[in-house]
Amino acid sequence: MLIRVQGVIIRSMDYGEGGKIVTLLTESHGKTGVLIRGASKPRSRYGSLALPFTYGEFVYFKGSGLGTLSSGEIIRSHHRLRENIDLAAYASYAAELTDRALQDEEAGSWIFAQLLACLDALEDGKDPAVTTHVYEMKILQAAGYAPVLHACVSCGRTDGLDALAPALGGAVCPACRADGRQVLPLGEKAVKLLRLFAAVDLRRLGGVNVGPETKAAVRRGMRALVDAHLPHKLKSRAFLDSLDALEQPAAPPIRPEADGGDGPRRSG
Questions:
Q1: What are 175-227's pLDDT values in tens digits?
Q2: How far is Cα 167 from Cα 119, in angstroms, rounded to an integer?
Q3: SS3 call for 78
Q4: CA 122 from centre of chain
Q5: CA atoms of 111 and 115, how far apart (whole Å)
């Protein structure tokens, strides 16, 4: 079967003599693997089409296994993301998180649009940390772990929300912070910003000015939510965290010791 899709390369690996296997996040076919023969050879016409973060049109033959590229065309190369080490770290994290966190049935056209908007925003100079945190939120939503942020996840109270209970999957009020659950204090500003991240579409993301303390709190909150519900060890995460650590103040501990035995839950 001959298939034509628009897709973004979220993983690329060498295969055989000069070939590459790429994983595409596509608009219409979820995640799919495609073999690009000869992509590593110096004069390959499709070498640039096999690079990470490339957004293009791919035409491939699909049988029972991997697809095999027949033809393709670059729509946006995102070459700046590969040329700048900091941007490459953020883009690699977004791509690897997409690949590892989502099953094929969860990788639909909506998350494809969000990933593409994330890469575009990074390349266009928007705050990389804020952009990536918004995308982390979109991944949580696509995977069924959308956090509860408009009310206390434990009692439903809507005021004074200034902390997260990551294992419960949402914000907690001052009263529920004291009932023996594992909580991460963030401050009301950070929780409100997380609420904004949950509501915003990355395709409409404007400039967001965030102070260093609030940005550090947001980072702690998003990392805690991702780690609680998508506990994958990502190679790109360690390097990205080392970059973030140069700019962020030290994180306070999650307290108290026990989490009350609550585990992650899918929304919906």
A1: 888 766 689 999 999 999 999 999 999 999 988 888 999 999 999 999 999 99
A2: 29
A3: coil
A4: 13
A5: 6
Q: Do 219 and 133 contact (CB within 8 A), yes or no?
A: yes
> Which is nearest to 8 in space by CA: 86, 90, 109?
109
For 100, residues 6+ apart whose C-beta sits below 8 A from its C-beta are 230, 232, 234
Cβ–Cβ < 8 Å for 248, 219: yes
3 state SS of 183? strand
Integer Cα distance of 131 and 264 in angstroms? 25
Span 75-97, pLDDT tens digits: 999 999 999 999 999 999 999 99
What are the DSSP E strand ranges found in the chain?
A: 2-15, 19-26, 31-36, 55-62, 67-76, 163-165, 170-172, 184-185
Looking at the predicted structure, is the pLDDT value of residue 258 above 50?
no
Q: Using alpha carbons only, what angle is made at residue 125 by residues 119 and 127, rounded to the nearest 5 degrees?
A: 85
Question: Whole-angstrom Cα distance, residue 190 to residue 210?
Answer: 9
Torsion sign across C-alpha atoms 103, 104, 106, 109: positive
Residue 128 has a pLDDT of: 94
Q: pLDDT at residue 261 above 50?
A: no
| Closest-CA residue to 191 (of 167, 165, 219, 162) | 162
Q: CB-based burial of residue 127 (10 Å sphere; 0-12 exposed, 13-18 middle, 19+ buried)? A: middle
Alpha helices (H) in 22-108, listed in sequence order: 79-83, 85-101
Q: Is 253 helix (H, G, I), strand (E, B) or coil?
A: coil
236 close to 136: Cβ distance less than 8 angstroms: no
User: Which residues, including other chains, have CB under 8 Å from residue 251's CB and lie 6 or more apart?
Assistant: 216, 220
